[in-house]
Amino acid sequence: MSVRIFQDWAANASNPKARLVLVLFRTANYLRSTRYWKYNPAVLLYGAFYRICVEWVLGIEIPWKTSIGPNFSIYHGIGIVINDRSVIGAGVTIRHNVTIGTKKHNGPAPVIKDGVEFGAGATVLGNITVGEGSVIGAGAVVVSDVPDGAIMVGNPARNTRERPATTVTDTAAGQ
Fold first, then answer.
1. Distances (CA, A) of 61 to 107, 127, 145
2. Which of 64, 120, 73, 75 is nearest to 92 (CA)?
3. CA gyration radius, the chain
4. Confidence bin at 157 (pLDDT 50/70/90)
5. 2-162 is classed in which CATH architecture?
6. What does the alpha-carbon distance between residue 153 and residue 141 come to, in Å, rounded to a whole number?
7. CB within 8 A of 72, min separation 6: which ones?
């Protein structure tokens, strides 16, 4: 269990606030995944503590049932809102005031693939997929699918260029 709770520790090495938020999130997420969490007063009490501490005090809304892969990284964690139906891959980086949510109440939420990076104030809404290794620029508003390796900027967001996919063999060949 401790490995699962600390899976974001190295990705946030210089950010104690992000470490605290993510340890609290991973603990809440783990407890919620237990079979009888709804009937366990200790789990429900921890869930209330998590919401008060992280959402109300720190201003970061990451519901405890959200699916987030390992090595999730938060920079300047304030004003972050992530819908609980969002699915976020491994190695994703977000900055302050990022919103990942739905277009309408109880609507479908985005799927964020591995290695996506969000700039400050970026917004991703609706039943869309953000491709692997993409960059969502600061202030971009994304409401349609994003291909792998894209760099999205503007409102509405547009793909400014494709990021070349680098592999270990490409890097070794370039030396």
1. 18, 20, 24
2. 73
3. 17
4. confident
5. 3 Solenoid (2.160)
6. 8
7. 8, 11, 22, 88, 90, 91, 92, 93, 94
Complete DSSP assignment for 73-140: EESS-SSEEE-TT-EE-TT-EE-TT-EEE-SSTT----EE-TT-EE-TT-EEESS-EEPTT-EE-TT-
pLDDT (tens digit per residue) in 72-123: 999 988 999 999 999 999 999 999 999 999 999 999 999 999 999 999 999 9
Least confident of 15-19, 47-51, 135-139, 166-170: 166-170
Give just the sign of the alpha carbon dihedral 77, 82, 84, 88: negative
**Token pair recorded at residue 144:** 């349609």
Residue 1 pLDDT exceeds 80: no
Residues making up the chain, counted from first to last? 175
* Nearest partner of 134 among 85, 92, 99, judged by Cα: 92
